[in-house]
C-alpha cells in the first residue's frame, strides 16, 4: 500500500484505552489519518511510504490538547503579575483589553500563542476571547486545530454591544466555520458573575440545538462563591444546575471550590472539569481537587488559561504541575500517576471538546495529530519508563516535530507555517505600543 508518511520512533505512547506503550513500532499516515501501527520490522513489507521520518531516540505521542486558553492574551504576557484574580482582571486586564483588543490585536496575539503552543507540543486548543473570527483566521493560517469560543458577557466591548449581539455574531461565525475541518466552536459565557440568567437560558437552548460544548469559568475563587451566595442566595454551580446547564456539553473551568455533593453532582451530570493548576497557583485562586474528581468519575482535562495568568502555554509544564499538585492536595503520593496526568492533557481534553473519536490518542482511524519528543538528551538519562520522563522531567524544548492532520507544522523545532522572526518583530511592536501608553 502506498502511503504519505511512515514515522519510526523508539516509543509510541498510544494513550489508547489500554494505555499501550509500544517500542520499535512504526506509525503509518495517509490522507491525514493514522492508517496503521505495527512493528517497525514489518512496516516496509506493508507500506510504500512517500516519506519516512526516523526518530530513533524519540517518543511519539498524541498532540497535547489545551482545554482552556485565551490565545490572544499572549500580547499581555507579564503585563500584570503577582495579583489576585479580581484585582488583576478589573484593574489591569480589562482596562488593557478595553484599550487594545481589536481584530488586529487578536490575530497577532493568537499567532504568537500558536507558535508557542506548537513549539511545546500542543496541536489543539480551546479558546475564549473577543473577535473570535480573528482567532479563527490565525488558526486557519497556521494549520493548528482549535475550538473557537463564541463568547457571551453582559457588558459591551469593542466586539459587541451585549449578549444579543455576541450571540448573533457567534452564530454567524459558527456557520462560516462549518467548512473548516480543523475548526469547531463552543459557546463561551465568561463566568457566572458576568453573565445573567436570560443569556444563559438562550445559549443553553442554542447549545442543545447545535450540539456544541458550553465553556465557562466557574468557581474560580472562594470570593466568587461567597459573593454569589450574598447576591443570589445560591452558589454559582447551584444556579447553573437550576438553569439546566450542567450536562455532558458543559466544561467548567477552574473549579477550585467544591463540596462533596457538588463533586457527586458533576459526576452524575457528566460535566467536564477543566483544571488550570498554574493559573490557579499564580492568582492564588485555590486548588481544584483533581484526584477526588477523577475518583468520582468526572472527566478532568487540563488547560493553561491565558498567557497573562500563567504565564506560558506549556502543556508539558502544566501536566507536571497537575500531577505534583494533585499529590499535595490529596496528601497522597499515589494519586494522579504519570499516565493519568498525560491522559488529562490528551484524551480527556479531546472528550471534553466532543472530539474523542477524532483526536486525543494514537489509534488507527483517528486524525494524525502527533508530536515527537527527543528522549535522547542528557537530562533524560537514564530512561526506565518514557511516560515517567514525559511527565516528570521533560521540557518543552525537547519537542522536535508536530503534525496536525498529517501535516508537519514543526520540523526539528522550526515552524513550517509561521515566520518566527516576523512574529518576534510584531510582538516587539505591540510591546512598544502597549508599554509606552500611560
Ligand atoms: C470574554 S473573553 C474572555 C475574558 O476572560 C478574561 N480572563 C482571562 N483569564 C481569566 C480568568 O482566569 N478568570 C476570569 N476571566 C479571565 C479575559 O481577560 C477576557 O476578558
Ligand atoms: Zn480563563
From TrEMBL:
<comment type="function">
    <text>Catalyzes the deamination of 5-methylthioadenosine and S-adenosyl-L-homocysteine into 5-methylthioinosine and S-inosyl-L-homocysteine, respectively. Is also able to deaminate adenosine.</text>
</comment>
<keyword id="KW-0378">Hydrolase</keyword>
<feature type="binding site">
    <location>
        <position position="305"/>
    </location>
    <ligand>
        <name>substrate</name>
    </ligand>
</feature>
<dbReference type="Pfam" id="PF01979">
    <property type="entry name" value="Amidohydro_1"/>
</dbReference>
<dbReference type="GO" id="GO:0050270">
    <property type="term" value="F:S-adenosylhomocysteine deaminase activity"/>
</dbReference>
<feature type="binding site">
    <location>
        <position position="190"/>
    </location>
    <ligand>
        <name>substrate</name>
    </ligand>
</feature>
<protein>
    <recommendedName>
        <fullName>5-methylthioadenosine/S-adenosylhomocysteine deaminase</fullName>
        <ecNumber>3.5.4.28</ecNumber>
        <ecNumber>3.5.4.31</ecNumber>
    </recommendedName>
</protein>
<feature type="binding site">
    <location>
        <position position="220"/>
    </location>
    <ligand>
        <name>substrate</name>
    </ligand>
</feature>
<dbReference type="GO" id="GO:0046872">
    <property type="term" value="F:metal ion binding"/>
</dbReference>
<dbReference type="InterPro" id="IPR032466">
    <property type="entry name" value="Metal_Hydrolase"/>
</dbReference>
<keyword id="KW-0862">Zinc</keyword>
<comment type="similarity">
    <text>Belongs to the metallo-dependent hydrolases superfamily. ATZ/TRZ family.</text>
</comment>
<comment type="similarity">
    <text>Belongs to the metallo-dependent hydrolases superfamily. MTA/SAH deaminase family.</text>
</comment>
<feature type="binding site">
    <location>
        <position position="97"/>
    </location>
    <ligand>
        <name>substrate</name>
    </ligand>
</feature>
<dbReference type="InterPro" id="IPR006680">
    <property type="entry name" value="Amidohydro-rel"/>
</dbReference>
<feature type="binding site">
    <location>
        <position position="305"/>
    </location>
    <ligand>
        <name>Zn(2+)</name>
    </ligand>
</feature>
<feature type="domain" description="Amidohydrolase-related">
    <location>
        <begin position="60"/>
        <end position="408"/>
    </location>
</feature>
<dbReference type="InterPro" id="IPR050287">
    <property type="entry name" value="MTA/SAH_deaminase"/>
</dbReference>
<keyword id="KW-0479">Metal-binding</keyword>
<feature type="binding site">
    <location>
        <position position="217"/>
    </location>
    <ligand>
        <name>Zn(2+)</name>
    </ligand>
</feature>
<feature type="binding site">
    <location>
        <position position="68"/>
    </location>
    <ligand>
        <name>Zn(2+)</name>
    </ligand>
</feature>
<dbReference type="InterPro" id="IPR011059">
    <property type="entry name" value="Metal-dep_hydrolase_composite"/>
</dbReference>
<dbReference type="InterPro" id="IPR023512">
    <property type="entry name" value="Deaminase_MtaD/DadD"/>
</dbReference>
<feature type="binding site">
    <location>
        <position position="70"/>
    </location>
    <ligand>
        <name>Zn(2+)</name>
    </ligand>
</feature>
<dbReference type="GO" id="GO:0090614">
    <property type="term" value="F:5'-methylthioadenosine deaminase activity"/>
</dbReference>
